[in-house]
Fold Proline iminopeptidase.
Amino acid sequence: MMLKMSRVEPLSRQWLDVGDGHLLHLLQYGNPNGIPLLFLHGGPGSGCHTSDLALFDLQRFRVLLLDQRGAGLSQPSARLAYNDVLHLLTDIERLRHWLGLERWCLAGGSFGATLGLIYSGLCPQRVLAQCYWGVFVPSTAGRSWLYGSQGAAKRFPVDYRGWRDSVSGASEAELLQAYAQALQTEERAVTAWCRWERILAHPWTLLPADYSITDRSCALIENHFACNHYFEAYTLMRATLNRWPQSTQLLQGEEDWVCPTFLLQQLLAEQQPSVMLQLIRGGHHSLLDTRMQQAVIAAIAQMADNIEPLMTTGVTE
């Protein structure tokens, strides 16, 4: 996601040593006395961008941009060791303790939404409110939709062929394992991986010809999680479903080809948690889509409207 945002200076830049050889990069922006909000980037591995700040009223929020393990400016870049769902969840709670926050808000998209929902189910008492979009369902069906031959491949067959033929493999699992090797050394593999994802995220958009070091890092981490079936994130997601806070907003584009709406609807239908799902007509996965961007900005503003009176009175239950 790259939204337009005028230059704004951070409140602070810090590094969080979480052990295991990982050093996480943290930027804080906005009002130091505002509503604390952790932004959870997607990918996994995409890292945060200052353009993400365009989603928030920085007079109302204290926004925390944390690059997850191996992502963005965190070090070492693209490190896969000790990089899994449980470690990422532990890092979130470690950050809250480090900042001395009793409760906070969460927001994010795609795999960031997956991570936030699981965290909120494990620690509902720590979440004031949360807003997520383009929610990724990390099930076998969710992975196969992305990388198998019967999901998004059916809608974008030519583009999928380009992704598939960039490595050698027949099955979905073989292709992912082949990419695990090729992404280490082959620029062609990085380009193919990133291109396929961007085709799905914002189809019919002019794509960049070149990809950066951070794109390679993201591709490696995404592949790492996919090869490992997202480290049982789907099991955790289902197990914590009914513990999500009621102050949870979910927004999903009707034309999200990365995280198709039907997978999220099926998950919610299993136990019908008391959360609000808003379908965005014609919306895509990327917030480059103005329909999704405007809907997310409005939802986050509504979240602030609901939370500010509680913070003023000191009532947060």
Summary: Residues 141-229 form one domain. The chain has two domains: 12-140+231-313, 141-229.
